[in-house]
């Protein structure tokens, strides 16, 4: 069967085209019906999986990446869904649409249009499972915050301070009667999609955590067949959202039922069924008593299907070592949280949180924020969202503005000494951060024959004070003798 269905639709580049068709509702449409499409543009063909969305609705979503006219034709084992044809015209992206984020320059990131992207993330693991009122408050807080990436889970979470039941679940069934892992709940997925779109409107990338160990519903102990089916359904529904990243797991090494070959298989499924090759990572557990110098429990981030390194570790001084080891972008997605929880990972000061950001980013890495203040109703940002209470977000915004004005940072030939975190581009730009050290001056060995302007940055007070003189070669730079100072060194015009 071959049938022309509709007039050509217009979709912006990196937007989302959606095609729906009516099909069978009997049996188990999630498992029994195969539905996909081939999208063609000149010599290029992109194969896209479809999905069943309940009520006899079969859906295909597509994110066009090339301008011009695309055609498509469906493929199905059901005659009424097979050979359906249509077309779309891909136009210039609207303002603010820069496309999905990709790896750039080995160690960094950029949007698909080439605009550099400096990830400044936060963690709200299950904010999307908290109900309309609290979720709306979270979105309001994010709209006022500096964060351009969020770590969040597909599945609900069971852990300290996390004992409420979500309103919907990803699968048909119930906790009491059991789950049918072969059937999905469209209401759950529609809600998740709405939240991803809400975040896209705020220009926030979604680092979506596909598995995690903190579970009382059985989602962390599904069979291999159920795991694979879940991943394929998720990818069919969500791959066309330009602001998604795939985090295979949070603290994958605490999911003891899964073996290393399972994680390899999951990566292969994601790679094979995501037509757009969104960013892919996996995140480790960290116990300082066991793991401070031992990374043997980590997944091998050097494997080719891992696009960037997602790390849990409190010591940002290792960033240069990890960059050199993996030759990929390094994101410290958990370095402890600003707050006052009983747990050691959740009670650092705002000063320490800001110091983590400056140390990591000055050395060419990236850092993710978290906040864990005790709350009378256990509404804690790290898991539930709601309101931000800490002092670090404003100072993280200050850092992001500085980063956005400069180049992507890397290792330099200058030794700025062990007590400073530094990076830059030799002969052009350097960013030097002194953290909790408080020198009254610093002797620098800048390149000879090049004059540099230097700004003194107070990273806590959020001030930038230019020095009147320019500097060259071996020079002495006065400092205020207080902590949390930095120098921005730029080649003079």
TrEMBL record:
Domain Apiosidase-like catalytic: 106-370
Domain DUF5605, chain residue ranges per copy: 418-490
Chain ranges of the DUF5060 domain: 10-77
Domain of life (superkingdom): Bacteria
Chain coiled-coil ranges: none
PANTHER family per the UniProt record, alphabetical: DUF4038 DOMAIN-CONTAINING PROTEIN, LMO1036 PROTEIN
Protein known as: DUF5060 domain-containing protein
């Amino acid at each position: 069967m071959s049938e022309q269905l509709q007039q050509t639709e217009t979709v912006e580049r990196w937007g989302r085209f959606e095609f729906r068709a009516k099909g069978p509702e009997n049996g188990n449409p999630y498992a029994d019906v195969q539905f996909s499409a081939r999208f063609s543009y000149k010599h290029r063909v992109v194969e896209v999986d479809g999905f069943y969305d309940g009520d006899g609705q079969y859906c295909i979503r597509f994110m066009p990446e090339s301008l011009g006219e695309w055609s498509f034709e469906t493929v199905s084992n059901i005659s009424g869904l097979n050979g359906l044809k249509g077309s779309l015209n891909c136009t210039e992206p609207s303002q603010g649409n820069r496309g999905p984020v990709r790896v750039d320059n080995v160690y960094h990131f950029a949007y698909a249009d080439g605009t550099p992207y400096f990830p400044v993330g936060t963690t709200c693991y299950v904010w999307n499972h908290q109900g309309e009122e609290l979720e709306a408050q979270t979105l309001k807080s994010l709209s006022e915050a500096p964060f351009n990436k969020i770590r969040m889970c597909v599945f609900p979470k069971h852990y300290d301070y996390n004992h409420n039941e979500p309103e919907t679940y990803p699968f048909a069934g119930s906790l009491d009667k059991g789950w049918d892992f072969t059937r999905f709940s469209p209401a759950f997925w529609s809600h998740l999609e709405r939240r991803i779109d809400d975040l896209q409107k705020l220009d926030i990338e979604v680092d979506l955590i596909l598995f995690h160990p903190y579970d009382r519903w059985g989602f962390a102990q599904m069979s291999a067949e159920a795991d694979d089916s879940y991943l394929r359904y998720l990818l069919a529904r969500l791959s066309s959202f330009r602001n998604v990243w795939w985090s295979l797991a949070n603290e994958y090494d605490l999911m003891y039922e899964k073996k290393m070959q399972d994680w390899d298989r999951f990566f292969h499924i994601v790679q094979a069924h995501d037509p757009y090759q969104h960013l892919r990572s996996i995140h480790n557990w960290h116990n300082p008593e066991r793991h401070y110098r031992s990374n043997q429990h980590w997944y091998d981030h050097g494997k080719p299907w891992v696009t960037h390194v997602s790390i849990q570790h409190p010591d940002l001084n290792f960033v240069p070592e990890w960059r050199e080891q993996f030759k990929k972008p390094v994101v410290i997605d958990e370095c402890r949280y600003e707050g006052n929880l009983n747990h050691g990972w959740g009670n650092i000061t705002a000063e320490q949180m800001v110091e983590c950001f400056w140390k990591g980013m000055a050395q060419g890495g990236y850092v993710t924020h978290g906040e864990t203040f005790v709350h009378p109703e256990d509404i804690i940002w790290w898991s539930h969202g709601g309101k931000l209470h800490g002092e670090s977000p404003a100072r993280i915004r200050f850092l992001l503005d500085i980063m956005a004005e400069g180049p992507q940072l890397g290792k330099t030939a200058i030794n700025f000494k062990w007590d400073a975190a530094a990076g830059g581009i030799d002969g052009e730009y350097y960013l030097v951060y002194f953290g909790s050290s408080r020198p009254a001056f610093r002797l620098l060995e800048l390149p000879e024959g090049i004059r540099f302007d230097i700004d003194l940055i107070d990273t806590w007070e959020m001030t930038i004070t230019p020095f009147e003189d320019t500097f060259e070669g071996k020079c002495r730079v006065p400092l205020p003798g207080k902590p949390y100072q930095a120098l921005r060194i730029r080649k003079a015009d």
